[in-house]
Amino acid sequence: MSGDVLIQILPSVLLEGLLLGFVYAMIALGYTMVYGVLGLINFAHSEVFMIGAVTGAEVYRHLLPHVGNPYLLLAISITTAAAVSGGTAMAIERLAYRPLRRRGNTNRLVPLITAIGISFFLQDLVRLIEGMWHNEFFVNYPSTPALERTFQITEMLSIQMKAIIVITVSLAMLVGLQLLVTRTRLGKAMRAVAQDAHTASLMGINPDQIISRTFLIGGALGGVAGVLFGVLYTKVDPFVGFLPGIRAFTAAVLGGIGSIPGAMLGGILLGQLETSAGVYLPLLTDGNIGTEYKDIFGFLILVLFLLFRPQGILGRKEGEKL
Amino acid sequence: MKTKLLSILLLTLACASGAALCSAPRASWTLLPVLAVLFLCLTMRLPRTVRFTAGLGLLLIAIPFAGFTNTFLFELGIQIGIFSALALGLNVVVGMAGLLDLGYAAFFAIGAYTWAIFGSTQASYFMNGNFPLAGWPYFYLFAALAVLTAAITGILIGLPALRLRGDYLAVVTLGLGEVVRVLANNLDHPVNITNGPQGISPVERPPIPWLMDLLHIFNPDASPALGYALFFYLLVIAIIGLVVLINVRLDHSRFGRAWVAIREDEIAARAMGISLTRTKLFAFATGAAFSGAMGAVFAAKQRFISPESFTLLQSITILGMVILGGMGSIRGAILGAALVTLLNIEVLKSCSDFLNTLRQTGFVLDLGFFQYNFALLPSQLEPAKYERMIFGLILVLMMIFRPQGLIPEVRHRLELEKDD
Amino acid sequence: MLEIAAISLNFGGLAALEDVSLKVAEGQIFSVIGPNGAGKSTLFNVLTGIYPPATGAIHFLGRKISKLPPQRIARRGIGRTFQNIRLFGSMTVFENVLVGRHTHIRYTYADALLHTPRYFCAERSARDKVLDLLNFVGLEARAEELARNLSYGDQRRLEIARAMAIQPRLLLLDEPAAGMNPRETDALKALIRALRDERRITILLIEHHMQVVMAVSDRIAVLDHGRLIAEGAPAAIRENPAVIEAYLGPGAKESLA
After folding, report:
1. From first to last of its 257 residues, what are the pLDDT tens digits of chain C?
2. Are the beta carbons of C51 and A106 separated by less than 8 Å?
3. Chain B partners of A112 at a C-beta cutoff of 8 Å?
4. For chain B, what are the domain ranges?
5. Do C177 and C70 share a structural domain?
6. Do C50 and A106 touch (CB under 8 A)?
7. Structural domain span for residue C68
8. Domains of chain A by range and CATH?
9. What is the ipTM of this complex?
10. In degrees rounded to 5, what are phi and psi of residue C80?
């Protein structure tokens, strides 16, 4: 493979990476926000994302014959998915994490194991529902000409309408969240609880309520990410959350877990790294190291960061509390 | 007095259930009492000798005897045994040392591939020699090697990973499990080491002429299949005996105490002069070693392995066993393994079969106000296919309602001279 | 025995310890007092290696310990208890102390697996030692109970026994009288003296309970806002106006008595 080709495909690889990166960034926000307020890795968040993807697909394909405008249709799908995913995330917090908090269990493995259990449970629950309903458990986002429309930018670079939508929606979400966290009362309360839940409660903030809303917002973002992911890659199933989940968590760590701009930065960085690794690894090694190794690549990045810069790119070093 | 009565009762029950099993080895109802007595042997507060006599009597006399007619009993025993050993290994890591390892199946895979590659023609793809290695000592040599490889891998991975905080360790081990699976899937090129997704088959079993000779005394027509079923059954029981012994001894040593200490409070443990990384490495390597040994046995017993057997689901299943039984509890790990395995290969399958029968016969449920024709039941509804949901539910419910597990860990001792 | 030379430590720009220097001689009972948030517990955490000091050095028995991790410092002979009790809750009282013997039980992994004579010998001597310590703090009757089921005062005494098990030359006690009733407090005073007189252990004590401090201390250091504001014999500290001012606020002299 000549160097020219490698460079010529670079713009489209970068674009691809950016799209994936936005999706990761939105999922990563869910991890990072929950980590911020609870100090918990919410393993179930990958399933909140998956539920968004599946819900979006169901809405999309069921309304397709009734709603003519594809943009309106997408907007409905995104809104429904955000609502369902946000609701699921809130329900998970309410039914599983809150009882554990109330009991004040000292064993730090307990919430983690619960989160893993929920994650597994939800995968099969969605599979069961889909299976009972359609007798198969993968769902496709039907392709619509409007979304598939391609704009040729240069000879080697083209962009599809759906890519433009993904970029627009993600940017709007990310900016909106940033404003929400920095400019509103809710945002301030969230940051206060993240700092010190006990002190925040003395200031008249109800931590449970704030935690619940954090799950709602993080879950809704995950749901939107799910629809965008589905629009980009068409096919979704109950197990579609696993890899993006790990990736997005890596992104959150990369940017500095607990930090919202960090999650965005980490997501985009990781999207780029993964896409480039996926394209260039096989090309540069004559196919001896296949695309599959990009999984290992992403994992290595996680481990290296955890070891050498656990506070991430944007995070601050935290002192251990005694 | 009460103890004496209960002991006699337990032994009587053991004899009765064993006799029932032997008299009707194929009837499904005869297995239940045996399982119930084994359960009592695990849980009752009786002298150890009584529980051991009853339990081992059933395991080593009644079940093998009935197994000659119904080899499914061996199959069940082997499955439970393999998972018990895995659960006991993971119990050291998660239960005693409090390190959440979500990639435990990776070590199982390493053990399995260690034997599968050299116990089949696979090794000839990348080295010279006469493969498979089929003589008698090879399997045992490689099983020992599998223990070493898994333990060394555990140390190599643990060295960086165990410096991380607990929740990060969970993510890293989860990723690690995936890495091992990706490697197993892709190391068929450029050099074919693992044969990729097709897996490796057939894997050699150790020769057992001595056991066949013994079997032929009782039954001249005994087939090699029966011989191997019995062989692996006995091998697995022997390994579990060893694993339990190792577990108990470590638990009563400074190593076991250091594990529990770091689980309870890392800062206090360090103030006692305990080195965190060293202690965690010991736990990680010990757990990995058990897993590696069972991997080699698994490869020989299945005669076929592929990356499919070493997924995250597998790791979570084993975790579920430890949680169900009780973190840090040795008897709990065995009970958890037995319950989950039974659920997996007996209960769920029976439910599936039952639903299938209803579906095929077009059975109509009629409650007067409610009617349902089972022919309409979607074919997706098969309990046996929904292990994830069931394990997930087990994990969540246990964590919320009984985090200490079915048989909670017992801290006892002083036992200066006495031995209960 | 212990020389603290000009150590400082910041938490996010806030000075937790500023230029603190102290010398503790062998055989002393040395108390550190000061209002809440004065940096007393932080000082202990620096001494035991949990936080490395930003500047300054700590020498113990003539060797530098200020860069060592906690477990190495413990092995050099500094034992400690914690302000917010940190026992191994689901282990028995007996086991808690046994964990303290960890570094003195010398056998290998193989010894533990094979139950060699070395294993039995080491375990037996460790057990004897633990029983002796439990007798010493008066918890022998509680040996088989879970640590978390003990009363507050008993938990404090168990922490002392556990810290003693590492055979320290210097013992850091962080508010051992907190949560104790008057009778337990009297027993504690006797225990602290016995630690020094019978067991020859040097003691560094953080305590709010002035009666205990004044009764047992040979020397007292006073911290305020991370700075050392006074050091001297109990009588001198009691009269020191700067201490009275900073520590208790103006006009509160009588409560030091």
Report:
1. 899 988 888 887 778 888 899 999 999 999 998 888 788 888 999 999 998 888 899 999 989 998 899 999 999 999 999 999 999 988 999 999 999 999 999 999 999 999 999 999 999 999 999 999 999 999 999 999 999 999 888 999 999 999 999 999 999 999 998 888 888 899 999 999 999 999 999 999 999 888 889 889 999 999 888 888 888 898 888 888 887 777 666 555 445 44
2. no
3. 100, 166-167, 170
4. 1-70, 72-342
5. yes
6. no
7. 1-77+168-257
8. 3-308 (1.10.3470)
9. 0.91
10. -150, 160
